[in-house]
């Protein structure tokens, strides 16, 4: 590591505050709040930022908090985002700091994301080894699924009110060693869409099927044919998923019902494939229903878009994490079929979404036994501080 790189934040600079980071993270873990209900979490974040000298704006896009800190005369600005919301899951970890809110849990690590950015915020305010403007974006409702916190903050003028040259975000990654980073330029996480397909036939007695139009048979044909979309319509060099997650119809074995419904999860990594999948799902559902004499209605909802990391910002962030943790602790992230509303920010600004290891034995995300790995807190906080310093050192 060069002498120049030692001017910037290091993990050891945060070791004497590791206890505070853990205390913050576990407090947030014990007090989870669901999407667009993060009143106490937002207040907790805002009060600390104000205490450290940030210009704080509350209620951005609902319950979003933005902390702005300017140092020197530099004209560059950076935005760093952490998400704050929890999930409607009943915790089963048995930890002493487990959720105190019944049926609510930080099962995705947003408590850790928030704690790490707060740790970096305190360091940056205390040391001020940068020249420009830092915008720390604490976002509500990443888990909302639709009309998410990112969309709400953007609609409330986030980038007009808090201009930035680039935006960065992070998610923990179960299965990767704590304190390691996974990086990828270009498409990283999938667009996630949902189709709810309602089939209307003609009900009747199970003993007289010739007098009916059986929506169960139609649904079964749709389920099987939809499995050919990826196999026979998507270019093999592309990645896509079409999964029928639910099928509902009928109330008794001797009754052919009037209607049936299937729900389909559709995931893709490019706009062209996303459009192709929607077209094929609609065409297949409509034609199969018509072939059986049934009718169909399709509620097709587009969810979060593809997370696309820009090359320059990814290269920059990769250089920063290599300086911080060493070459051997930085790897290439595989494409992830999960979705993330950070994608909306990247539609407006160049940036990079990183993955930080949560331990090889970590429970999976959204599990009732998941817990953020406290061993990653100092690494994550140091990374954010160093990234801001490096970005604003030019």
From TrEMBL:
Residues 194-287 form the Peptidase M20 dimerisation domain. It comes from the Bacteria. GO terms for molecular function: hydrolase activity; metal ion binding. The keyword Metal-binding applies. Keywords: Hydrolase, Manganese, Metal-binding. CDD domains: M20_Acy1-like (cd05666). InterPro entries: Amidohydrolase, Bact_exopeptidase_dim_dom, Peptidase_M20, Peptidase_M20_dimer. Belongs to the peptidase M20 family. This is Amidohydrolase. Mn(2+) binds at residues 108, 110, 143, 171, 366. It comes from Aquamicrobium defluvii. It holds the Pfam family M20_dimer. The lineage of its organism: Bacteria, Pseudomonadati, Pseudomonadota, Alphaproteobacteria, Hyphomicrobiales. Its cofactor is Mn(2+). The Mn(2+) ion enhances activity.
